[in-house]
Specification:
mainly beta, four-stranded antiparallel sheet
């Protein structure tokens, strides 16, 4: 197969450039060049692959775990409810892991064909998913049928969903929305800025925004900035630190509610490249990065690359600790020359 000099990274995120929100579904070779990659360095991986990989030994080894999911699918989110595990994809639907058949079953019945789903959460027995431009959908029967949420922000991308006590929060390109009835109806809660992710630690809610990080100390009634230097793609925590995934400065962490932030990129190769997800599992913190998967035993102070049973040159988008093990989804397949 000829080398493809114009690689496209399917990054479903908008970000700030000179104060303007720029929406990106496909980032071209210019983006690669801006990260010091050259068109002669990488080509598309042509070997057999799957969309999902699993580790059951804290990341020491990995195995393909995508049976039932199209190999070219990009996993956009995971969710668990007891022993049940779900995932969403860009354009290929929603899947539920069937433990009897050991297969991922598509549960996208009556959803719009080719819908781009960015987020999923579960409240009680209700599945709630957020799409790129078609609003929020809910299912009360494990995906057998779906209905459109009322007063859903359907003309703006839904970037993230979060459960907090009896509420649901949605991160959109027009700020934060809230639902108090398991996703059926939604009201605008805060701001007009893109919100890319949420995390909850010590009863405080943190949000990743296109112009920094936000914190709410009163159950999402009020929000204030605790970081305003760079765009945050996502945000996470391990119970001790909050981790910010920035565009431009790699990974940051804070232990004081955002009063101070520390760069934690030692061992990530190369430093400051795109980190898509951070997930705490047991005594470790894992990072899904533009060049592979990494694990830290010291809250991100140092990182070790993981490469047993998994291609360390792939870009990985998602990580989730589930009853099935630690799962990750592939974002971009490439191989060094």
């Amino acid at each position: 197969m000829d080398k493809l000099y114009f690689l496209f990274i399917l990054i479903s995120i908008s970000f700030q450039l000179n104060g303007q929100q720029v929406e990106e579904e496909n980032v071209s070779i210019d983006y690669l060049n801006s990260m010091n990659l050259t068109k002669n360095t990488y080509s598309v991986q042509t070997l057999e692959h799957q969309a999902v990989y699993r580790s059951v030994d804290e990341g020491k080894s990995w195995e393909a775990f995508g049976k039932g999911i199209p190999a070219e699918a990009i996993v956009s989110a995971f969710a668990t409810n007891g022993l049940d595990v779900y995932l969403t994809t860009d354009y290929h639907g929603i899947f539920y892991y069937n433990n009897k058949t050991e297969n991922w079953d598509n549960i996208s019945t009556n959803l719009p064909a080719g819908i781009d789903i960015n987020a999923i959460t579960i409240t009680g027995k209700t599945l709630v998913v957020g799409s790129f431009r078609r609003g929020i959908f809910i299912s009360k029967n494990n995906g057998k049928s779906w209905e459109t949420a009322q007063k859903s922000p359907d003309q703006t991308p839904i970037r993230a969903l979060c459960n907090y006590e009896d509420k649901l929060l949605a991160g959109t390109d027009k700020g934060i929305y809230e639902s108090k009835d398991k996703g059926l109806t939604w009201q605008h809660k805060y701001g007009n800025i893109q919100i890319n992710g949420f995390t909850i630690m010590n009863d405080q809610i943190y949000a990743a925004a296109a112009n920094g990080a936000l914190i709410s100390k009163d159950q999402s009634e009020n929000w204030q900035y605790n970081y305003q230097e760079l765009t945050l793609h996502d945000i996470s925590n391990d119970g001790k630190y909050v981790y910010a995934m920035t565009l431009g400065d790699g990974l940051l962490r804070t232990a004081d509610e955002g009063k101070s932030w520390q760069a934690i990129n030692e061992g990530l190769d190369p430093k400051f490249y795109y980190t898509f997800e951070v997930k705490a599992v047991g005594n470790f913190v894992f990072a899904a990065q533009y060049f592979g998967l990494y694990r830290s035993a010291d809250h991100g102070k140092s990182w070790m690359k993981l490469d047993t049973g998994i291609d360390s040159n792939y870009a990985y988008l998602m990580l989730e600790h589930t009853p099935l093990g630690l799962l990750t989804g592939v974002k971009l397949r490439k191989v060094k020359q």
